[in-house]
Design goal:
Length: 143
């Protein structure tokens, strides 16, 4: 699927969300390499959400940043039936976990929301900038 098809799919999956849709779409694009990652293709996981509890999961290699260095690790990721279910779980995570309190408090400001979200979502210190570049470059502020 091309970028425009991916954006359309992701927008459709975010229509019920309470957080900035454009940021959700940008994050899905970043985390899933525009829907082409093994995780998104094999497990409908578009946000790199780690497995929790006894839910269905898949184990794949990933890169984490630890002490400023990239480290390859195997991780257990959540598996979903479709993109909408994955988006709903992302919404639940942001809504329920205390570490996303700042993101929730800034949901009316997409850029600040993205920066607050990035603090806890990923280990990559450049995550917020990468996320916002996709957001602005693809006019996702217009969603």
């Amino acid at each position: 699927m091309n970028k425009q098809e991916f954006i359309a799919l992701a927008i459709a999956a975010t229509k019920e969300g309470k957080y900035p849709a454009g940021v959700t779409v940008a994050q899905a694009a970043l985390e899933s390499a525009w829907g082409s990652s093994r995780l998104s293709l094999r497990a409908n996981n578009y946000f790199g959400i780690k497995a929790h509890g006894d839910a269905e999961s898949i184990e794949l290699p990933t890169t984490e940043i630890a002490n400023g260095k990239a480290v390859k690790v195997l991780a257990r990721f959540a598996a979903y039936t479709d993109i909408a279910t994955c988006v709903a779980d992302r919404e639940r995570i942001i809504t329920q976990l205390a570490c996303y309190q700042d993101a929730r408090a800034n949901a009316s400001d997409p850029e600040l929301f993205a920066r607050c979200l990035a603090r806890h979502w990923a280990t990559d210190p450049e995550y917020a900038e990468k996320l916002l570049k996709i957001y602005w470059d693809n006019n996702l502020d217009k969603i």
